[in-house]
Amino acid sequence: MGNNTSYQRLLDGNKEWSKAKLKADPEFFNNLTKGQTPQYLWIGCSDSRVPANEITNTKSGEIFVHRNVANLVLHTDVNLLSVLHYAVEVLHVEHIIVCGHYGCGGVIAAMENHDFGIVNKWLRNIKEVYAKYVDELEAIEDITERSNRLVELNVMEQVKNLAKTTVVQKAWEKRALAIHGWVYGFNNGIITDLNCMINELNDLEPIFRYRLSSDTSE
Ligand code: CO
Questions:
Q1: To 5 degrees, how large is the angle CA 52–CA 53–CA 56?
Q2: Are residues 71 and 134 in the same domain?
Q3: Among this protein's residues, is 101 annotated catalytic?
Q4: How many domains does the chain have?
Q5: 149 catalytic per annotation
Q6: 9: domain range?
Q7: How far is the CA of 108 from the centre of ligand 1 (A)?
Q8: What pTM was computed for the model?
Q9: Has residue 218 been placed in a domain?
């Protein structure tokens, strides 16, 4: 549009932020250059209203983050698996948090029968969650309440999907690792713990438990 005001705002904002950080703590950036030791892996939605650090009141360096549309954990997603592998094997995070949010556009879109093109392939995974819980969901008359319940069920399924990975199961052989399912509401800014935590192989249906006999399996 002829001027660069809209994006220049971000660069100007960055300079102000950096100045304020240095003022509050002259060692702030020096400490960041020493490396990261986050205890948490956050798998959240790409939605601009759900920034992991901001809503948890945490600082740079505290949360390792992966975000995608509707916070899905797919066993064929090399991006997600790479982030998971690095967070668990190298950073040794102790907690993995799947955080969905009410009013999720991806979840709402998945409840429709509209053809969204390539996005259909991504949203199909949410449709599978819907199909699995169709009786419970269709007993809810109100469409907003129904989509909110699907948001919750989708988070719970992604928590299970994490437990189904060999990355997580290998970690369990050696140490503690907990997977949590949360939902954020931007109506009040509060995160609800869905209490669907999985922290051991026994929490998972036997068919998904791997017999990990060597260190080479992936
Ligand atoms: Co969303």
A1: 85
A2: yes
A3: yes
A4: 2
A5: no
A6: 1-34
A7: 9
A8: 0.94
A9: no
Polymer length of the chain: 218
Q: Decide: 168 and 210 in contact? Cβ < 8 Å.
A: no
Residue 20 burial (CB count, 10 A): 11
The whole-angstrom distance between residue 112's C-alpha and the CA centroid of its chain comes to: 23
> Same structural domain for residues 70 and 23?
no
Mean pLDDT on 199-209: 95
Instruction: Determine which one of 101, 146, 149, 180 is catalytic.
Output: 101
Q: How many CB atoms lie within 10 A of CB 147?
A: 21
Q: Are residues 28 and 70 both part of a single domain?
A: no
Q: What is the pLDDT of residues 100-122, one digit of tens each?
A: 999 999 999 999 999 999 999 99
The alpha carbon of 103 and the centre of ligand 1 are apart by a number of angstroms equal to 7
Contacts of 218 (CB under 8 A, 6+ apart): 166, 167
CA–CA dist 113, 123 (Å, integer):
11
